[in-house]
């Protein structure tokens, strides 16, 4: 039921504007505007009715930006619709201003915003802020460039023929069929060209396409491939990193139908493309950058899955690895899979070696399980350098010694002042310098383990800076390059060199690396996270694809035991096997995606207050609350977290229950709470 902002304006002394409004005549037709006012609380998440003055009749169109008085303040809003009369019995306030007559929140975009808000128990305003960029007045008045009049020719499907059902999926996109698939890219594949071919298939029949990648490096690569195949005027790149004017200019070009092919980072999942939507793609859906870090925390994969389903468009979830969520779509039959045969995989992949694969390795090198760089890694690196090729060294963390622990028992070394982690400062290169706290900066001169009392420390994880220093000593005369932090390399030449990089910023080597060393693999797998194995495998695949195929001498050495499931998946180059195993394990334990989970964070009082107001479905259960480690001066927990878990079939009911609980809290709550459905790390 709609409400009015005028009632609140009068209660706060808005009589001055009311006096001016009495002489204003309402519009003759559809004089009532329903406005989404820019307010955040859940109990105000509904449209409010305002009268449209006759002078705004032509400009006050559904979807436009307006200004209204609400609770005594002049606020922004979106005009959602106009109706003949209001169901509010009192006097309505007047629309104060039409900021722009450009309809920016209307039609399919408005329905998408509503659907995302409901899925994540958020408000329309929270999602609208993500979907509609800030206005730039000058851009709206710029002349519009002429759009291409002819459709591009359909692409060749020869490259997709390497995969089972690949060519058929490309034809389905061209014919406008709602095909859905999970694509496992081959290690030597130019994935950006393949995605550009899918976009061209949609564009050849004048259908729109949205392709979303995790970061700016992937975006630059995909944009270049699409522009080369379709031309610059048919493709637009959207990302939050653009300036306000340029971002709004490109967004308007999409909304007005000047461009039909949109590539971008997570901001592009809301791109207001002109129907019909023919294709949506998410590349590397396991990357955590696909999750919006602001409320209501939507994930690109889930939003694009909804868009494909509601618009009858084709959907492709592609990557080098496979997430448990993507595997669930395959196992449920909702999506097919596009994978290559084992012969193709073996010919395209490098040779992968894990430590302890056979007894001969252990006999030659008894320290192989404990050494950070055992002999098999040295041999692979030396051979690649002798062949005149660079060697990639992947290190999980940047810095020098980013994590320290007790030398006797392994307990993490923490600050006596704030309990933060101790580390050797980044880039000091001075092993004699005492460690300092990464949280408060206090220097620790007299460490003593809280567990066993010893005064000696050792590095739990060695950072990229320390690794580069060690390798420089071990391989005298060889160039050592680093990529990570503020110094990211895009490419390295085809010459002998050691390239130390953190995951996600590995530079491309001309002709491919001769070898890759995946260091501290056991540390990556032992992280206390639900997705530790999945994330480690995804990062290993990303690094291994930069290495030459095995028939060209390419070799990957992963420093973890070969019997570990993620290591086995890498050695066999079989991400779908690991994803199926991971999904089965989570289903047995009741973890996502087999169950729908929500996390509730806040003060103990606020969390308990919200939990008391949640009416869960029959399959629901509450885990916790548990303290998050932050304590006040009295030693009491300042923040707690509770998990709410239901069967996946009841996921919508869980979202609705959390939404209603937040509405009931209203303004009288004991503090803010952070509600997140489908968090990446619920534990």
Automatic annotation (TrEMBL):
Binding note for cofactor: Binds 2 zinc ions per subunit.
Necessary cofactors: Zn(2+)
Residues engaged in binding Zn(2+) 2: 415, 418, 437, 440
Keyword Lipid biosynthesis assigned: no
Alphabetically ordered keywords of this record: ATP-binding, DNA replication, DNA-binding, Helicase, Hydrolase, Metal-binding, Nucleotide-binding, Primosome, Zinc
GO cellular component: primosome complex
Region (Disordered): 1-26
HAMAP family in alphabetical order: PriA
Homology family: Belongs to the helicase family. PriA subfamily.
Protein name: Probable replication restart protein PriA
Organism: Actinopolyspora righensis
